[in-house]
Every structure is written in structure tokens, then in C-alpha cells.
Amino acid sequence: FDYFRAKGVPFNKPRFFVGSRLGMVLKTSNMIEFVEEIYNEFRNEKVSGMFEFNHPAFFIRDPELIKKLAVKEFDSFMDHRLVLSEDAEPLFAKALFGLTGQKWKDMRATLSPAFTGSKMRLMFKLMNEVGSKMSKTVCDKINKGADNKVEFKEFSRKFTIDIIATCAFGIEVNSFENANNDFMRIATKATNFNSSGMLLKLIGFFGFPWLMSRLRVKFLDSELYDFFDNVITETINTRERKEITRNDMIDLLLQAKHGKLEYQEEKSSSDGFATVEESQIGKQKVKTVWSNQDLMAQCFIFFFAGFETVSNVMTFMAYELILNPDIQKKLQDEIDAMNAELKGGDLTYEDVQKLKYMDMVLCETLRMWPPAPIIDRMCTKDFLLEYDNKKVQIEVGRNFYIPVYSLHHNENYFPNPNRFDPERFSDENKKNIRQDCYLPFGIGPRNCIGNRFALLEVKTIFYYLLLNFNFEATKDTQIPIKLANNQATFQFEKGLHCALVPRTK
Ligand code: HEM
């Protein structure tokens, strides 16, 4: 607890055992309150300190320093702090997010060609099929008299499960017809951080990973591991035996396994303002031979990273549209115009790129409600941090946090930050946005590999939903919303209860 005092860095006064995480243990604050509390404690400092239980961590407030460490000095800050070892969670440890050093570089370079604009264009067909089919199912049900009141988080999970199942695993699920399918059951289990058992595990893994490793505590249920193992092994075997091509992620991973996937530079490759660029590391050629288990871990992380984040964005976007009917109407006008232009034809990848206002609304949702409100990096080479005539040594194994949420809500970077205003991202205004202060998909070579996929997915689903429905509040809608007092997830306390009212055109 003397770590920061010795370095002359101001720090959040730690409490015995819990450090700066009392709110996590007592469940008295949510993730945003935690980030804001630490961010606002030393408003005039570029760097401060906090404690993950007994583990000191730097908190970098200054965007230029963040950029310096996460981009320019990437070699010294390449990894995330590993709280899950290979013993505790083989799938996490072998997946891109958990990999470290050279292994991470090789895997990133192997996978990044699967996430370029041209690959997204091919995958869009699968996404579009699910989006349009599911909206039609919902429409038919409501038109036949089914209840039009939904809890939007639960509702959007059905879309994201079906899309990730078809795009990452090559499996059609149809969660609106069969709500209790295995994917949904497993996903719900994997992302349920609310139970006391899970809270204890989280405290253990965050605060005392070495102890958890000694005790051989597993993070995820073994049923989950078996489920992914069976699904992926079976799919890979069938694909290889029957030489089926489907342009989904399993296809791309198999191409990568056989060394046939290479990064292709593209002329214009923006899938929206929030798109992040791939670094040179991701564009290298690699010769590593990957095992089926390595591939399985990647499918797993696509599932894990791409399911909860996307359904969260969808829920927050629906909430903002309910609060701001004029914005909802303007977005529907754009969608209706596109629909008229299509004259009954299929929506294409290029059409989605043309939905400018959709991009503005989504960018603003990601600013107001970034699904990853805080991200971290771990020091992989001793580093002397110099700023404001100070010199602070950061040793290997120490990590720093980037307060994404607080940057997005700092009035110096986003005037009137609590106002939902898509106009910030208009052609005219977006040039005023500092790229180092807008980080919904992270920063530097370790940014979100699935960013294009995520943007495309949300836009496609909202296209079909808003074409057919108005989102309206009901007596059960919690306004203003409150977040659940849980620092492991970023969710509404009571969900988002609302009505999908069929549009009369
Ligand atoms: C709106 C939805 C999403 C958001 C806001 C989001 C955000 C993020 C953020 C903030 C990071 C950490 C970046 C950093 O540390 O600089 C990350 C990493 C990652 N995301 Fe996403 N993500 C989303 C959707 C997805 C999807 C759909 C996929 C996969 C299909 C995905 C796959 C990953 C992976 C594999 C990583 C680890 C990258 C690495 O370590 O090299 N994400 N994401």
C-alpha cells in the first residue's frame, strides 16, 4: 500500500484487503461509479494510483499519455493483466484477449485478415439473413396478437446469439422460435456474474490470482467447455470432410490454420466513424501452425466478447431512442428512404454504409454508454514514465487503466457530455472529436478486432427493427435508468422494459 507514496504519485487511499474495490465487494456501486470516482479524485493529475485489492495499478487520465503508452510504447505495454491463467481457464488463456507477447502477435496477425471490410462484406449476407428473418418472426407474432412488451436486453440477446452462432460457429439457432436453445442457455450461464459464487470467484481472480491458481479454481463451468468443444470439433470435422464453404468465421479460421489467409489492404475500409484501424502487427504474415484447440479458443472469445457487448449497445441505443423520439423519427426517415430505394430488393453491405444518421446515433450511443467503460494494459518491459517534470518507474507486471467512460464524459472533450446528441458525429462536427478521447473499441494494436463486425451487426438489426416498429416507453420503463450495482457487468438494474409498437405506414 506504500507503492505510490514511494513514487510520489497521488493515489486512492486503499482499504484493508479490498484496496479501492470496496464497492465491488459490498455491491454498493456500479462499474461507472467506480471509474468516475477514481477519475475525479485527482482532476488535475495526469496519473494517479489505485489498488485492485492488494495490487497497485496506475490510472492514466491524460489522453496524450494514454496514446503514448498504448500506441507509441506498445512494446512495453503489450498485454492485459492476466487474472485467468491457463489452469483456471484454458479457453480464455488461449484466446486472443488472453494471449501474451509473441503468441498474441502471431494470433492477432492470423485472425485480423478475417475481420477486414471485404470479409465483413461476405459475412454480411449471414448477418442480414438472421436480422431480417428474426424481425419478421417478431412482427408476425405481434401482428397475431402476441404481447408487444419486451425486456429489451433479453430481446436483443436473441438477435446477438443467433448472429454470433451463424457467423462464428456456422449454426442456425432461431432463438425467437426456440428460446431455450443450448446456445442461449450456455451464453446466459457464461455471462451471469450476479451470483454470490461468481462474485467470490471474481474477487479471487482479480485480487489473488496466484491463490486461485494454487487452489485450481476454474472460472467457467466445465459444461461450457464441453459444449464449445463438441460444437466446434464437429463443425470443423464436417467442413473439412465435406469441403463446405460458408464464408463464416470457422471457414476463415480453417483457412488460417492451413496458412491460406492473408491480410488484404483495402482502399476505403471504414464501417463507421467508430471503426478502429489494424496496426502493422496485425498485418504481418505468420507461419505458426495452430491446433484445433487454438481455433476453438478464438471461436469462444468471439462468442464471449461479441455477445454481451453488442446486446448492451443495442439496449442502450433503444433506451436513448425511447427518450428522444425526435431522433428515433429522424433515424426511421433515413431507414424508410433506404427501404424505398431498395424497392423490395435485399439490403446490402454497401447500403448499410450509406446509413449516415444510423452511424451518428450508434457512435453517440458508444460514447454515452461504452460497453467497456475501462480497459487495461500490463507492463511487459520496465518503463520510465516521464511527464510534468516527474519520472515514475513502471515495473514489469504492473498495469495501468484507461478510463474510457470518463474520457467520453469529460466536458473538455465532449461539451454537455450527458446530453445524447448524435450531431456531434455529423460530417461537419466529427472533425472536432479527438480520436484519443473517443475509445469505445480501445486503442492501439490491441484494439477490438471485432469492431467492424459489431458496428455492422447493430446497424443491420436496428435497420429491420425500426423499419417495422416504434420503440416506446411503458409504465415499467425505468427513467432515468439505473445501473446494477455490480462492477463486473454493465447492465440496467431492472432491465429495459418497453413496447415495440408496429408502425403504420
Ligand atoms: C459494440 C461491441 C463491442 C465493443 C464496444 C467492444 C469493445 C472492445 C474493447 C474496448 C476491447 C479492448 C481493446 C483494448 O484493450 O484496447 C475489445 C477487445 C476485443 N474484442 Fe471487442 N467489442 C465489441 C464487439 C466485439 C465483437 C463482435 C467481437 C468478435 C466478433 C469482439 C472481439 C474482441 C476480441 C477478440 C478482443 C481482444 C483483442 C486483442 O486482445 O487483440 N469484440 N473489444
UniProtKB/TrEMBL annotation:
Heme binds at residue 448. The keyword Nucleotide-binding does not apply. Its cofactor is heme. It is found in: Endoplasmic reticulum membrane; Microsome membrane. The keyword Cell wall biogenesis/degradation does not apply. Coiled coil: none annotated. GO terms for cellular component: endoplasmic reticulum membrane. GO terms for molecular function: heme binding; iron ion binding; monooxygenase activity; oxidoreductase activity, acting on paired donors, with incorporation or reduction of molecular oxygen. It is a peripheral membrane protein. It holds the Pfam family p450. It comes from the Eukaryota. Keywords: Endoplasmic reticulum, Heme, Iron, Membrane, Metal-binding, Microsome, Monooxygenase, Oxidoreductase, Signal. May be involved in the metabolism of insect hormones and in the breakdown of synthetic insecticides. PANTHER family: CYP9F3-RELATED, CYTOCHROME P450. Belongs to the cytochrome P450 family. This is Cytochrome P450. The lineage of its organism: Eukaryota, Metazoa, Ecdysozoa, Arthropoda, Hexapoda.
